[in-house]
Amino acid sequence: MTLHLVPIAFRDACEFVALRHRHHAPPIGAKFSIGVADDHNHLVGVAIVGRPVARHLDDGTTLEVTRTATDGTANANSMLYGAAWRASKALGYTRLITYTQTGEPGTSLCAAGWRIIAQRRARRGWNMPARPRRITGTENIARTLWEAS
Predict the structure, then answer these.
(1) 3-20 pLDDT per residue, tens
(2) Alpha-carbon gap, residue 67 to 24, rounded angstroms
(3) Are the C-beta atoms of 48 and 81 separated by less than 8 Å?
(4) Mapping DSSP to helix (H, G, I), strand (E, B) and coil, where does residue 10 land?
(5) Cystine design at 67: which of 47, 48, 56, 142 (Cβ 3.0–4.6 Å)?
(6) Considering the chain, what percentage of its residues have pLDDT values greater than 90?
(7) Cα separation of 18 and 63, whole Å?
(8) CA pair distance 57, 64, nearest whole angstrom
(9) Residue 103 DSSP symbol
């Protein structure tokens, strides 16, 4: 099976994420989205790239892969991570990051040439008394910060 990149609207990428992502809902916004399709032009995965969620990383030159989702097709996720970095560089960004949760090996990221730059401890989440937020079910999970290289 041959895979190829396809353009995809943010709305369509969000629909794919809503159906296929293991633990996150679609993000609120994005800078761009990328799709990957098989040789029958059937969509098998998407990546959504946006501004970094952590405000101290939102420096105007950094983007974050906020979601990827696939139907399990081999190599689709690695292809998306590689394409996201190439597209980010082509748009003038100098850094692209993403996170994995504890228990996710990051095989696709390694295959796409990304590297681990930090381990983040588990947090209670974004819900604070002074800043109420919806509980998403991803609280209290340590994460690994990756950077494209």
Answers:
(1) 999 999 999 999 999 999
(2) 8
(3) no
(4) helix
(5) 48
(6) 74
(7) 22
(8) 9
(9) T
